[in-house]
Give the backbone structure.
Amino acid sequence: MRTRRMTQVLVTATAASSLLVACSGAGGSTSSGGGGESINVLMVGNPQMEDIAKLTKDSFTKDTGIKVNFTILPENELRDKVTQDVATQAGQYDVATIGAYEVPIWEKNGWLHELSSYADKDAGFDKADLLKPMVTSLSGSDGKLYALPFYGESSFLMYNKDVMKAKGITVPERPTWQQIADIAAEVDGAEPGMRGICLRGLAGWGELGASLSTVVNTFGGTWFTKDWKAQVSSPEFKKATNFYVDLVRRHGEAGAAQAGFTECLNAMSQKKVAMWYDATSAAGSLEDANASKVAGHVGYAYAPTVQTKSSGWLWSWAWAMPKTTKKADAASKFMLWASSKKYEQLVGERLGWSRVPAGKRASTYEIPEYKKAAASFGDITLKSIEGADPGVQPRPTVGVQYVAIPEFQDLGTKVTQEISAAIAGKTSVDKALNDGQKLAEAVAKTYQ
């Protein structure tokens, strides 16, 4: 009954939006390689995934003869599509990118292949080299890996050093959110068309919900208490959300209610904003001189705090194999290659060392070329991942920026839709959170 209820929750949460997503995906479906076996891979359209789509044909396919057909989707659409496919056991994909939120839930449902046995048999993979937070977050209740990390991340503050220097501002290495708000006000308009800060405003539990939840945590709030009392309308949650909405409305990017990770990355790299709070994995793209106008001119600071010592999230985009695949051997070969030291070396040599999908292996941070390319952000990224802390309030599940229950996908998305509307000036924060409280209370009843 429990598995059936989880399936119904996940399918209901995604069915409507999944019908709107074309099978080829926003990034299209591309084939690579010549004849032989082929696998279908569904992945999120982040820069690191776009890189692997470019590199696969002339490396993995050339070496193995296995063609890889990629479907690339924006984050919100990816989450809908992969959940729909796996929960209904449609079996369209052999490999998909999922994260720490999905792994423990889907493992309990029996939807994923365990991957420890594949990793253990591949001596070159070196499973012991994987960072402990990544292994823990991608393991099932039996201690086995059910996804292999492609890259890992926390969150931190990125800022334009030239703008700060011109204004005589020193950004603290460990700033408070009030300090960042004050700086955002001071640098807003520092250059023509430049806003003070970029913060995600795009609705979605993994978009706006991710960054906002870290702010809620450090303000002393939480989605649920340890005994499953909903806290969405609590004073701490409201104070954090009002702060976030006010900051992005006053000094944030244009069109903030439609801005997610990709839009903020573009805004920062094209000098449209002076600061950006988001994923540590974004640094590699910002430091890519071929695509970023701020390469070599970005400073990095730890995630801003209020009541906590740290406030960065913990996440990994990882490769998972649905139980429905009939091509487990070929799929496992691709995943092991995509998460390997060999692939990191390939990216560094072909595309540039700043673009290596890092945050998952200890050895990455010992590669001389990578250490040089990541000198400004490598150490702070690693320490942020290792120091990720959910906040001051005890909570009922694991997860920093999410609640590890199947209902959160729907709950987080609905609540952030209302908060995004508040950013757009279409409703108030109080109304958004009061409505969200009712939704959270309904979820909580299931667990009390």
